[in-house]
């Protein structure tokens, strides 16, 4: 089975590099001009699909991993028996090591030879190199990005979610409570303030849950576990509130950025 691999050392913390990898638009920009087409949503999450093509070869890449360890995607419904794109992240003393690899199996006959020509004659290597350069650049940008905090509030084995009422493109979708960190405010202080404003409760924030998630070029989402210390949550600014079981998590229509965090939220619930 053919395989190509590249490594890049990025001068940024692991969580920042992980956030850069989750930007689906990054991959599309990286491969622009190389004869590769990638279409997808704003962020990568487990189960997300990316439509793409390499020359005359078309298929769908389905994301199978998207967290602080890296990103993986597999070809589904395409002409190759197997095609995987894997990015692993490793913390080092000098920054974050990004290890990109692509593996594929080609069918027999003329098409198999065509696939090996398209993939094996450097195009896949060019894609990996372009993506690595884009990740490095995006990571530098995200080091100075503003932060939106979210709160994963757990009570009696249930997670609190709230349903948006506005704007129109987000109305009806679900998210975790939270909002922007104000200047000179710590992330934890912002969690406490936002929960007070949105839910009329007092919470105590704890450890970060999951990766940083890119929202815009200069904005990212950072979620912290939290527990209630005073008050009963109210839907002050949202359409509705709901306490979720682990089985409920995958049934809601989440905002894309919050959907990224579902694999990290599952272990918090029994």
Short description:
The chain is an alpha+beta fold and 270 residues long. The protein has helices at 14-21, 24-30, 109-120, 123-142, 187-199, 256-259, 262-265; strands at residues 3-10, 36-39, 49-54, 57-67, 70-76, 82-92, 95-105, 146-155, 158-163, 174-175, 178-180, 202-216, 219-230, 240-244.
- Give the strand tally: 14
Structural class: alpha+beta
Percent of sequence in beta strands:
35-45%
The number of helices is: 7
Helix content: 25-40%
Q: What is the average of the pLDDT values?
A: 86
- Taking all Cα atoms into account, the compactness measure Rg is 20 Å
How many domains is the backbone divided into?
2
| CATH architecture heading of the largest domain | 2-Layer Sandwich
CATH fourth-tier homologous superfamily of the largest domain? START domain
Q: Which geometry do the CA atoms define? A: globular
| Secondary-structure element order, N to C | EHHEEEEEEHHEEEEHEEEHH
Q: CATH class of the largest domain, please?
A: Alpha Beta
Distance N to C terminus: 40 Å
Largest sheet report: 7 strands, antiparallel
Stretches with pLDDT under 50, minimum 5 residues: none
Describe the structure.
The protein is an alpha+beta fold and 270 residues long. The chain has 2 domains: 140 residues, Alpha-D-Glucose-1,6-Bisphosphate, Chain A, domain 4; 123 residues, Nucleoside Triphosphate Pyrophosphohydrolase (Alpha-Beta Complex), CATH 3.90.79. It is built from 7 helices and 14 strands. The strands form 2 sheets. A 7-stranded antiparallel sheet has the order 1-7-6-5-4-3-2. Strands 8, 9, 10, 11, 12, 13 and 14 form a 7-stranded mixed sheet that branches. Strand 12 and strand 13 form a beta hairpin. Helix 1 packs across helix 4 and helix 2 crosses helix 4.
